[in-house]
Amino acid sequence: MKSKNKNSNIQKHQNRAKSKKKSRAASLFNLKRFTITASIAALASFQIANHILNPGWDLSQLPHLSQLWLDHISPHTTAAAPEKNRQGTGFSQCPQFFPNGIPPTASQAQLQRELCFSAFAILHSGETKTPVFVVERLNRNLLEQGKGLKRSDKFYADARLPRSERAELEDYKHSGYSRGHMAPAANMYSPEAMAQSFSLANMVPQNQQHNAGAWNKIEQDTRRYVSRAKGDVFIYTGPVFDKSRGTIGPGKVSVPSHLFKLIYDASTGRSWAYWHSNQAQAQSMAPINYEELRRRTGLELLAPVIGN
Question: Does 16 map to a domain?
Fold first, then answer.
């Protein structure tokens, strides 16, 4: 009888210890959730106040705050986000990224969605699960503002896209390709913009040597030009696919054969484009003109400002 009572007391002690451990873990989780939620709420209030004082301030990042909450509080919830939280935001909410505030006329292709971020905008294809193009507006002041900004390096699947139309982290694992930014992290000028630049909606499967080599040089050259320009410079970047395009991952994310970067200087009206094959041996070539880029891609990116 004494042995039974002793075992019972040991069991009760173990149960109390487990209960205390769970209680401590729950308290830490709730404290973390409260802290992050309060921070996000403060950020939202700051953005709304800025919008009231400055009507030109872009509020399109507000829907993305829910993504920040998901990433920090429940990183596995993104894949199961409700359909109503996956809607594209529409270019009408971020006209500042386009010359004269006018987006190019989108094609009628299926599964294309417009997404606004705080420092760039994306026309995304659910067929290739990559951007069709990404557009940024940069100038000397914005580049200065972003100097010394730390990379977040936290890649994530964009919950605003239906799961059937987006790349997932596992698609890139062991693929042999890097997650190639279309709007480069080095162009970002706020912590929020930096975090958003790691959305997989902003990525294409890119040859690793090309990404770190010739393409990186193009990105650096572009920033050098922007730092000398008198005003805003608009940059369109995107992938091009051949008919026999390969794919990576269980989600079959398409691998581009080429990448392009179109630069338009609004203060001078000048434009030019870089065209690179997505290969290790790709070398920097002389820029091509806008007409040639339009012929190769079929995209009318600058039609609203320079016509057809």
Answer: no
Q: Looking at the domain assignment, is residue 19 inside a domain? A: no
Distances (CA, A) of 189 to 57, 99, 195, 233, 271: 15, 20, 11, 15, 24
- Rounded alpha-carbon distances, angstroms, from residue 115 to 118, 125, 130: 10, 11, 12
Q: Pick the catalytic residue from 181, 210, 258, 276.
A: 181
pTM for the whole structure: 0.73
Q: Give the integer Cα–Cα distance in Å for 196 and 186.
A: 12
Does the active-site annotation cover 181? yes
CATH number of the domain where residue 133 is located: 3.40.570.10
Give the tens place of pLDDT for each residue, 2-53.
455 555 555 655 666 556 555 565 555 555 555 555 555 555 554 544 444 4
How is the chain split among helix, strand and coil, in percent rounded to 5?
A: 45, 20, 35
- What is the spatial distance between Cα 259 and Cα 211, in angstroms, rounded to a whole number? 11
Q: Which domain holds residue 130?
A: 86-306
d(CA 95, CA 87): 18
DSSP 240-254: E--TT--EETTTTEE
Whether 138 is in a domain gets the answer yes
For residue 61, the 8-state DSSP code is: T
Closest CA to 261 of 91, 138, 115, 83: 138
Question: Token pair for residue 120?
Answer: 């760039």
- Report the domain count for the chain: 1
262 found inside a domain: yes
pLDDT higher than threshold 80 for residue 89: no
pLDDT at 303: 87
pLDDT value, residue 15: 61
What contacts 218, CB < 8 A, 6 or more positions away? 261, 274, 276, 284
